[in-house]
Specification:
196 residues; alpha+beta; 4-stranded mixed sheet; two-stranded antiparallel sheet; 7 helices; 6 strands; 47% helix
């Protein structure tokens, strides 16, 4: 499975957890943001004036869309897996183990001005960034896990198990990440990618 497949497995697991918590999530909800505006005969990002340029229909900032989050506006959960072992961040990672997570959260928010555009549409943009080698999550994602565990506990009427719910979800996500990393290594070295 490629990096996109690993991303999709993690996204799908969280989608199912949100559905079980009665949050009514949607996968890859299209049309959350308006298409990029035109500047002359091209869109501001350089796409030509086609009938339906790819970027016009691809403004999907939500891998998982939650229509009502924290008893407020909808939320767009945008998943990413990064690594603190990349050459350009390894020195920062040695000083701060969360440096690559913070950096990638900032990138996800600023790329195509996604966070500001979501806010202008009344949507909370939440980058859900996981570190590939250690399996840790960024600060935003950790906040989501806490709230998701509370919602799940309420849905199942088990308020005392909020921490256990969050821990179990994080353990399943971490195991999925490491299993997919192992498959990728086996494929790279000719093992066929067979992992339990």
């Amino acid at each position: 499975m490629d990096a996109g497949g690993r991303h999709n497995l993690l996204r799908n697991m969280v989608f199912h957890a949100a559905a079980a918590a009665n949050l009514h999530p949607e996968l890859e909800k299209p049309g959350l943001l308006a298409p990029r505006p035109f500047v002359g005969s091209t869109r501001e990002n350089g796409d030509s004036n086609d009938v339906d340029p790819p970027s016009a229909s691809m403004r999907r900032p939500a891998d998982v869309y939650v229509p009502r989050w924290r008893a407020g506006p909808p939320a767009a959960w945008d998943f990413a897996v990064t690594s603190g072992l990349r050459l350009e961040v390894v020195h920062d990672s040695a000083r701060d183990p969360e440096a690559c997570l913070k950096s990638y959260e900032d990138f996800k928010c600023s790329h195509l001005d996604t966070k500001a555009q979501c806010q202008s549409q009344g949507i909370s943009f939440l980058p859900m960034v996981m570190e590939a080698a250690g399996g840790g999550w960024g600060k935003t994602a950790r906040g989501v896990w806490s709230e998701l565990a509370k919602s799940s506990a309420l849905a199942f009427g088990e308020l005392q198990t909020t921490t256990a719910s969050a821990t179990q979800l994080l353990q399943r996500l971490s195991m999925t990440l490491h299993r997919e990393n192992a498959r990728a290594c086996l494929r790279r070295f000719g093992g066929g990618g067979t992992v339990g």
